[in-house]
Design goal:
32% helix, 11 helices, alpha/beta, 4-stranded antiparallel beta sheet, 11 strands, Rossmann fold, 334 residues
């Protein structure tokens, strides 16, 4: 863990303590705190993890050990149909950068998870490569013959390749030094290339209502907690301009949030709300950090009484810019 954190937004060195925090999902035993940069207000999880800490963290605790390659392949079918696009909008699962890829483009997904995004990009007519820190993904990538580098972008994977689209779906908040990663991405973009990022929004309605029980604090996996202002400031410092942004709230996040506000959590113990069963499919790829066991736990509750109401509510909240995740497109400043 890093002893001397630096704010990636303003490069400040002073932080104000907000509260203690722990892993309330998967039972990592470490003790952490949320602290705010006194210079710009950016919130970080401290002590800050290092890049070399991530493979062990995700390999031991993140819910991808039981994902089936067959389930991942099946989840990618039909992605290009208009009905699928409408369904993603209604469910709030269109907060994924690969859905904006164009036929013939080269796409790089940083933090590609199970590789579902790469299969979907292929189905949309693009070529796709991925980078993933979680060693559990290796067997899935091999089974599906996907171009996945196990490690980080700092390893300089896929030498000589430039990309038309780089996506980071719920990833930038996991990276210890996101500013350095953004700067490195610029060197891997083809002329006219773009970067699409999706990350939790600390100015969302659910963050304000839930406080310390907001599911997207997700300690210690989320190291940085952005709003649009702090993220845009970091992006400008790294040589980018923001082309567009919007908020998107997956409906299942809201259902899980409602349950999390009542759940009992104990430091060092995994929560049953986020349990993953041996038969789980690729839910952790479509909604990172959400195991399919969680989906099964809430499915009956959601579908029978809440889901239609939640969907309408979320689409209205998203239209107001108060949604739980931010989706931002960047381009390098010419």
């Amino acid at each position: 863990m890093s002893a001397n954190p630096v704010c990636p937004v303003c490069e400040g060195l002073e932080f104000a303590f907000l509260r203690d925090a722990f892993d309330d999902r998967y039972g990592h035993p470490g003790q952490f705190s949320l602290q705010r940069c006194t210079g710009c207000g950016h919130v970080m999880t401290l002590p800050l993890l290092r890049e070399r800490d991530l493979p062990e963290l995700y390999g031991n605790y993140y819910p991808r050990k039981n994902i089936s390659a067959t389930d991942v392949a099946n989840a990618a079918t039909g992605v290009a149909s208009p009905a699928a696009a409408l369904g993603r909008w209604f469910a709030g699962t269109d907060n994924q950068g690969q859905y904006g890829v164009r036929p013939g483009e080269r796409m790089l997904d940083l933090g590609c998870g199970s590789g579902l995004s790469l299969l979907e990009a292929h189905a949309l007519g693009a070529q796709a490569w991925g980078v993933e820190a979680d060693p559990n993904v290796r067997r899935i990538a091999d089974a599906l013959r996907l171009n996945v580098h196990q490690g980080s972008l700092h390893d300089m994977p896929f030498p000589g390749l430039l990309f038309d689209l780089v996506v980071l779906n719920q990833v930038i908040e996991h990276i210890p030094e996101p500013d350095k990663t953004l700067s490195l991405i610029a060197s891997r973009l083809a002329p006219g290339g773009r970067v699409v990022l999706v990350f939790p929004n600390t100015r969302s309605l659910w963050c304000r209502l839930s406080g310390a029980r907001w599911i997207n604090w997700h300690i210690p996996y989320h190291l940085h907690h952005f709003d649009l202002n702090t993220f845009s400031r970091m992006a400008r410092r790294c040589g980018y301009r923001t082309v567009r942004s919007r908020t998107v709230t997956p409906n299942i996040w809201t259902v899980l949030q409602l349950r999390a506000m009542r759940a009992r959590t104990v430091p060092g113990q995994p929560s049953s709300l986020w349990a993953v069963e041996p038969t789980d499919g690729p839910a952790a790829a479509t909604l990172p950090g959400v195991g399919a066991g969680s989906r099964k736990n809430v499915r009956r509750f959601a579908l029978t009484c809440l889901l239609p109401i939640v969907a309408v509510f979320n689409r209205c909240v998203d239209a107001l810019g108060w949604g739980d995740s931010l989706m931002v497109e960047l381009r390098p400043v010419a």
